[in-house]
Amino acid sequence: MGNKLLITKDGRECEKCKLFYAWEFYSKNKRNKTGYQCRCKMCSSVNAATYAARKVKAQAPEPGFSYKIQCFCLAKAF
After folding, report:
1. Does residue 26 contact residue 12 with C-beta atoms inside 8 Å?
2. Contacts of 21 (CB under 8 A, 6+ apart)
3. Would you say 23 and 9 are in contact if contact means Cβ atoms under 8 Å apart?
4. Cα(65)–Cα(70) distance, rounded to whole angstroms?
5. How would you classify residue 11: left for phi > 0, otherwise alpha for psi between -120 and 50, otherwise beta?
6. For the chain, how big is the Rg over CA atoms in Å?
7. pTM higher than 0.70 for the full model?
8. Where are the alpha helices (DSSP H) in the chain?
């Protein structure tokens, strides 16, 4: 199948950056077998920031709309 990530009692490899970190560098997740997220906190924050930027960009109105319609559409989005 895929590449196996190293998981020990001291820590694990991050799924995204493939670097080994101690458990303190991972957020807790009780749904996961290990009890921690599969991505380190740094990779998770980068992923969240890029998602937020895409979401804001997707909510921006198209340039062809009038100003009043843009304000109305933005007000309904929030």
Report:
1. yes
2. 11, 12, 13, 14, 40
3. no
4. 6
5. left
6. 20
7. no
8. 41-59, 67-77
Say how many residues make up the chain.
78
Residue type, 54: R
Which one-letter amino acid corresponds to residue 58?
A
The 10s digit of each residue's pLDDT in 15-56 is 999 999 999 999 999 999 999 999 999 999 998 888 888 777
CB 11 within 8 A of CB 23: yes
| CA geometry: angle 55, 58, 64, nearest 5 deg | 155
3-state secondary structure of 69: helix
| Chain centre to alpha carbon of residue 72 | 30
